[in-house]
């Protein structure tokens, strides 16, 4: 992801956090994919085949590759700075102190587990072992070192970021030749998995939870290249592919509905939807309005 998008999305989450601008947190605990991974694939040293483990990744901020999919910082780095907390260590980093936060996100992560993709004939399209349920298990393994026997109180005063999840769940079948119509059929299952995971975290003690939606994938250079069309009606006024953006809109609509149901079940919990879609669309419409982020 380009650094400009990463920075903008970071500011999106910061704006969500404005609802609690006077709030302080013990820690931030993050779950997700490459958008927020802070190095879980590089805890023992970046593998030679990993592009993000090589320069220019990390060049503009850390001065070296850290496993982040950017040459600067990712979303949760900005959030940690906003709340006066240290940068979140990847959860697989042995010897780290996770009391002020941990990052379970890992490049390539999906919402659904491997069996789901295998049932679709897409087992070869999924290459890591860090779906959402597994990331929750990683977090549970860390809990004794984070909060001992008083986890409810400690986690009540921590911020949880869940996602975005869904991007890789759609990339795999779309790049594997599935139609938009077929892929839209998977969305309810993916949303159920996200909301069930959120409820699991609530059961562990989470109270403040940000759940971002997916980005407008029809504006992504990769999609614009792979699915370019000679029919101008396939594009919106921003030059983005309508059909792929409609998938993102459908996902985000169902996600908001699902979160509303969860919120009604747990009125003491504060669920915050992170609107990546609208903010990235604004950047596509008027990139100059966001300054020179490169």
TrEMBL record:
<keyword id="KW-0325">Glycoprotein</keyword>
<protein>
    <recommendedName>
        <fullName>GDSL esterase/lipase</fullName>
    </recommendedName>
</protein>
<dbReference type="Pfam" id="PF00657">
    <property type="entry name" value="Lipase_GDSL"/>
</dbReference>
<dbReference type="GO" id="GO:0016788">
    <property type="term" value="F:hydrolase activity, acting on ester bonds"/>
</dbReference>
<dbReference type="InterPro" id="IPR001087">
    <property type="entry name" value="GDSL"/>
</dbReference>
<feature type="signal peptide">
    <location>
        <begin position="1"/>
        <end position="22"/>
    </location>
</feature>
<keyword id="KW-0732">Signal</keyword>
<comment type="similarity">
    <text>Belongs to the 'GDSL' lipolytic enzyme family.</text>
</comment>
């Amino acid at each position: 992801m380009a650094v400009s998008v990463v920075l903008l999305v970071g500011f999106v989450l910061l704006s969500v956090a404005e609802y609690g601008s006077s709030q302080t947190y013990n820690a931030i605990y993050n779950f997700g994919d490459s958008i927020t991974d802070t190095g879980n694939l590089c805890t023992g040293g970046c593998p030679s085949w990993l592009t993000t483990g090589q320069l220019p990744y990390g060049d503009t901020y850390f001065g070296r590759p850290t496993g982040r999919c950017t040459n600067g910082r990712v979303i949760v780095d900005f959030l940690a700075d906003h709340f006066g907390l240290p940068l979140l260590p990847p959860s697989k980093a042995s010897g780290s102190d996770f009391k002020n936060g941990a990052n379970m996100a890992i490049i390539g992560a999906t919402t659904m587990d491997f069996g789901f993709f295998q049932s679709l004939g897409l087992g070869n399209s999924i290459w890591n072992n860090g779906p959402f349920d597994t990331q929750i298990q990683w977090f549970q393994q860390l809990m004794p070192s984070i909060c001992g026997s008083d986890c409810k109180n400690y986690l009540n005063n921590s911020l949880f970021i869940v996602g975005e999840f869904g991007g890789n769940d759609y990339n795999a079948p779309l790049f594997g030749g599935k139609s938009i119509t077929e892929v839209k059929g998977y969305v309810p299952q993916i949303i159920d998995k996200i909301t069930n995971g959120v409820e699991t975290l609530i059961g562990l003690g989470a109270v403040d939870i940000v759940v971002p939606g997916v980005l407008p994938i029809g504006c992504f250079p990769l999609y614009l290249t792979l699915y370019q069309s000679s029919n101008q009606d396939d594009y919106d006024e921003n030059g983005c592919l309508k059909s792929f953006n409609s998938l993102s809109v459908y996902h985000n609509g169902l996600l908001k509905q699902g979160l509303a149901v969860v919120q009604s079940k747990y009125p003491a919990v504060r669920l915050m939807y992170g609107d990546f879609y609208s903010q990235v669309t604004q950047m596509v419409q008027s990139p100059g309005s966001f300054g020179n982020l490169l």
